Amino acid sequence: MNELKLKAMAKINLGLDVLRRREDGYHDLRMVMQSVCLYDQIEMVKSRETGITVSTNLNFLPTGPDNLVYKAAKLLMDEFGLQQGVKIHLKKYIPVAAGLAGGSSDAAAVLVGMNRMFRLGLSQAELMERGVKIGADVPYCIMRGTALAEGIGDVLTPLPDAPDAFVVLAKPPVHVSTAFVYGNLKADHLPYHPDIDGQIRAIRDGDLYKMAERMGNVLETVTVPAYPVIEEIKECMKRCGAVNAMMSGSGPTVFGLFDEEKKARAAYEELDQGSLAKNVFLTKFFHNR
Asked: What are phi and psi of 253, to 5 degrees?
């Protein structure tokens, strides 16, 4: 196999709770993760020349060792002593630094691609073990679908497919630093904790409304006061008929879940034509089936 084309799916958090700050500076999390049908495209080609060459459609992205795609390829090249090189072209559609795990998903796709292309024989679980060395979200981005994530996000339990919904994603024109969010989070004095167990039961029951009712992201306690536009986008989505709306990850992207395409399209058009959001997408959940 000399060429491969792969899709790197974006993710949202249907629920995100922080249990405590750990002694190592990380936080223990409990999250319900969900892939959506917004994706980057990755093209991989074997090269006779040794080494890794990365190119991208965005000129501001690094293409050297700082790029997660490069790191993923190098991780397996070094481990298996691969002599052939690889050329990787990354077409970015997932907004950068948006709370949608775009970079982690790109790295996950490259790990999967290297495994296939060079016939390394690694199982999904073995790829996930290696993926966490690149980033906490990478193992989930290898698994995809609906899952419970615990620990720093790397302890994963697959869940049944979440009930289908139309999804509107809207990223405001602000940059949110993950370090800023976690650095200012009062993990031991949070005003609420989302009902993650109740949300999982609703997913198992196939109940969109109960699942959405239990959505919650404790990181909003930091980001919304700092960036009020996040709350404005949530309210816009709810006015348009969203079952619920919430920030994904550490932000700033907001997603709304809709039970009818007509409502979702109305929200998409209002946000796309307005000034609250820089990037707006209308999509659906991605399932592994």
From this structure: -65, 135
- 15's enclosing H/E stretch is strand 3-21
Q: Which residues contact 171 (CB under 8 A, 6 or more apart)?
A: 95, 98, 252, 253, 254, 277, 278, 279, 280
- Report, as residue numbers or ranges, the catalytic residues: 11, 137
Q: What is the 3-state secondary structure (H, E, C) of 61-80?
A: CCCCCCCHHHHHHHHHHHHH
- Residue 60 burial (CB count, 10 A): 6
Q: Which of 124, 114, 111, 126 is nearest to 84 (CA)?
A: 114
The tens place of each residue's pLDDT in the chain, 289 residues long, gives 799 999 999 999 999 999 988 877 778 899 999 999 999 999 999 998 889 999 999 999 999 999 999 999 999 999 999 999 999 999 999 999 899 999 999 999 999 999 999 999 999 999 999 999 999 999 999 999 999 999 988 899 999 999 999 999 999 999 998 889 999 999 888 999 999 999 999 999 999 999 999 999 999 999 999 999 999 999 999 999 999 999 999 999 999 999 999 999 999 999 999 999 999 999 999 998 7
Structure tokens at 137: 């979200």
Phi and psi, residue 34, nearest 5°: -145, 125
- What distances in angstroms separate CA 163 from CA 86, 209, 242, 257, one per listed residue? 39, 9, 15, 11
Measure the N-to-C terminal CA separation of the chain; round to a whole number of Å.
25
Asked whether 180 and 227 are in contact (CB, 8 A), the reply is: no
